[in-house]
Design goal:
The chain has five helices and two strands. It is mainly alpha-helical. It has one domain. Helix 1 packs across helix 2 and helix 4 crosses helix 5. The mean pLDDT is 92.
Length: 125
């Protein structure tokens, strides 16, 4: 149940980012297809963050230390760009048009999903 709520929170966060950030678009012929795309993108983001993000963080540990952790924002933006590429490859209409929208979108997604997870009680221990 916690996993489903966590995916739902991430999907809502991605929807908010797509609504607020001009470079992030979510396309689909019907509202149901856009909701399905949000859920798939939330799952893709979860998998990317679980598999690729730790490796990217380890490989860029020196940059993270030198920038006092600010490089983690760039890593998060890269993970959002990767999730966008995977969603496009799977045939879902989720597009991130560059590094700046990805950076802003990743910050929005982090904030909104953090709030949603706190409200829903799915916060990691």
């Amino acid at each position: 149940m916690k996993l489903a709520l966590h995916i739902l929170a991430t999907a809502v966060a991605v929807g908010v980012a797509a609504f607020l950030v001009p470079g992030i678009t979510l396309n689909g012929p019907t509202p149901a297809s856009r909701i399905l795309a949000l859920l798939v993108v939330a799952i893709v983001i979860g998998v990317v963050n679980a598999v690729v993000r730790p490796l990217a963080t380890i490989l860029s540990a020196c940059l993270v230390l030198v920038t006092l952790g600010l490089f983690l924002f760039v890593i998060n933006a890269g993970m959002l760009l990767l999730a966008s590429a995977i969603a496009q490859w799977l045939g879902f209409g989720f597009y991130v048009d560059g590094i700046v929208p990805a950076l802003i979108g990743s910050i929005i997604i982090s904030i909104v999903s953090g709030i949603m997870n706190s409200v829903l009680g799915t916060k990691h221990d």
